[in-house]
Each structure stands twice: as structure tokens, then as C-alpha cells.
Amino acid sequence: MDRFYHAALQSESQRINLSVSESQHLVKVLRKKIGSQVEIINGKGGIATAEIQSLDPKGCGLWVYNYKQLPPASYSLHIAIAPTKSNDRFEWFLEKATEIGVQHITPLLCTNSERRKINLERWQRIILSATKQSKQVYKPLLNPLTPFPKFINQHTEMLIAHCHDKPKKELHTIPFSTNPCCILIGPEGDFTQEEIDQALNRGAQAIQLGSNRLRTETAGMVATHTWRLLADIAP
Amino acid sequence: MDRFYHAALQSESQRINLSVSESQHLVKVLRKKIGSQVEIINGKGGIATAEIQSLDPKGCGLWVYNYKQLPPASYSLHIAIAPTKSNDRFEWFLEKATEIGVQHITPLLCTNSERRKINLERWQRIILSATKQSKQVYKPLLNPLTPFPKFINQHTEMLIAHCHDKPKKELHTIPFSTNPCCILIGPEGDFTQEEIDQALNRGAQAIQLGSNRLRTETAGMVATHTWRLLADIAP
User: Fold this and answer.
1) Does domain B3-69 have CATH number 2.40.240.20?
2) DSSP-derived secondary structure for B30-86
């Protein structure tokens, strides 16, 4: 069944009006008919069946029933990653990390960042589309572009992936925990030694992601999938 | 040090001429000078240092020394995957699977395949570029487009990933072995039930890759990374 997003969906909802973008998708792309059934998610674990009552590309009306609240993932992963110079590569990361399963994404502004402007609204749409496409009911939260020093001062339990020739552990050797885990991924030119030291001083652990040199967006995706797999394998 | 590819490099090599494409990259993109040092790989584990002797975009000459033969990966993975309708998405898979580490890739022609023509030469270039970029010395072997029935009749030890509601195991629960492992990934419309039955009759095991519905190219990459991680974790 085709799936649509309505952030305000809750267990008491009886009738909802879809947003303009969701309505246009329903009417103009999928060409649904009145009376057809679809699924509605609120991105926070809520899912309901709905019947199309009115077809309007500016706001379709639907009757909602059979609301269920589904449990969250067995892990909580936050990827803080410097956007790549190529916007395509970063958007690819957003899509793939969402498909695989991540809870929070923060674009990081680092010393070596080449991209310093981002289009948060477009990225939100990519994440929503990948959430629906991969049949998930929780939508990852995307934060605004955040300077590296500000980010590390606001977080704990961090793992920082870098390519400097310094002691670090393979991510897959870090004991899995259901506590929130935050993995930092640097820009194309890597984190600076100063940034790494700042993170280590805040209690972060240095990690690597295998022996091959990975592009930023690949590192973000590999970190996401490693943590997800560690959660799946955990007893 | 920048890395170039020369398939014929061997331990006895003293002087080599790079191909046109590698020479153009050396001369026109990286603007190297005579006397500069670079690395040469043969894609089969051989790596040497080289000094540029002549600059010619049609064939640079290099003196080669310090040849080393490096050991292969601790696993042997073959991904047989139906090319996606969007060429970009498949090329993305080729790049990412190469970065992460795969030994053989076969594009599969399936009943539900939407893409029936491929550009093998362009795909070879993507794989070579990702091999060099990720600092690997073994280049994955890319086979021609192969019809599904032909492929499964020529292989054993296969795992087939599909989304049909039939018994299957999570890939990460399959005991890791250093024996060659071959994972089959279907097209956007999935394998047909007939194709799955053909593979099972040939002794293949049915697998899934987590609970989220993954796009073809994501499934290929997730399968590659799961097997690589199982190899890393294996005692």
C-alpha cells in the first residue's frame, strides 16, 4: 500500500488533510482515486490506514482509522558528518543512511569543510522520501549545519572517525550499547589534528572504518551500517 | 603518493609505458613533473614505486622499482546484481562496493530487469578509479551482463536476497567462511518466484538484509559490507 506522511497524525486522528507536496504526489504522480486506501505515517512510529475522501492537489482529505504506534529501533545512532563538496554525494549519503537506519543526522561545519551552505529543506525531502520508500515508520531527524566546536561541546559518548596516523579502534570492536551513540565523520580533507584533540578532550574515542580509504559519504554510510549490524548481532 | 594502474606490472618490470587514459590523468589533471615519484598497481596485488621519465599524454614512461606483492583480502565475495533502471544508481553501487571491498561483480539479466544494455567500459573505469582512490591493490573483476539462468548454472555456494514472503535467513547469521561466497541481488521488481526456485534447486540459500526495504543498489552495497564485516569480526 502506498505510504504518505502527515506529521500531526496521532491515535485520536479521524480526518486529516495532507500537505501540498504529499497531495500532489497522491493526485498527480500516483493518480489515486476517491475511496482508495493508503497508509499514513507521522515519522515518529505512528502508522494508520486511510481512505481518500477528496482529491485536491493543494490538500487531500482522508478518513483515518486503525492507528498503531510501532516500537523504535533497538539502537540510537547519531551521525554528525561534514557535507561533501559535491552535493550529490551528500544527498546520496542521506538517502542510504535513511534506508539502512539512522535516528539523527547533523551536518558539521569543520575547518577543512569545502561546503559551507546547505539546503536543509531539500535534504528533508530526500530523507522523507527514503523513509517512505524503505517502509520505515520513524523518520531520521536532520539538524541544521552546526560548527564542530559547538557540536562537540553539546554531546557526549562520541566516536570520531579519522585517517590520521594515531591510535584508534575499529568501529566493530566497540562494544555495542543501546545507549545513544554519536559518530563524527570529517570532510574530504579530514578533521584537523586540533579538532581531533578537542573531541578526545571531550571524552570521544578515535575510530577507523576498515583499512581502505573511504570517501566522506561512504564513511558515513559504512558507520551507519556497522552500528546497525552490531545492534542486530548483539545478544 | 598518487597511484596509477598498469595491468602488466610485474616483479621483473623495470620500465613501463602508462596507457593513454592513465597518462592523460598524470599529465593533464595531476600535472606531474619529470622525476616525480608515483605508485603503480597492477590490480592483482602488485605495487611498485616509479619515477616519471617522460611526460606524454599518449604514454608516459616510468622507471619502476621496489615491487611488492601484497596478500589478498581474507574473504572472496562475488556480487551478482541486476543493473538498475537508473544508470547513476548502479554506478554508485560499483563505486561503493569497490571502496568497501568486493572481488567479483556480475551484472545479471533477470526477468524483471528494466535495463538490458550496459556500458561495461565505463563501468570498468569507475571500478578502477574507486580502487585507486580507496588505496587498494586488488581491482574487482567485472564480468559481462549474464542471463540469470546461465549464471546460476555456472556457480555454487550462492545466497539469494529477495523480498518474497518465504523462509529466509538474515545474511549476518550465515556462518562466515573464507570460501568464495556469491550473493545474488535482484532488479527493482525483485526476482520472480521461478528464478528464486531455480536458485534454491541449485543449492542456493535464501537471505534477507535487515527489515527495511532496500533499493537494489543499497542492497548490493549492504550485502558487500555485511560480508566484509563478518570477515573482520570472524575469529
Assistant:
1) yes
2) S---TT-EEEEE-SBSEEEEEEEEE--TT--EEEEEEEEE----S--EEEEEPPPSS
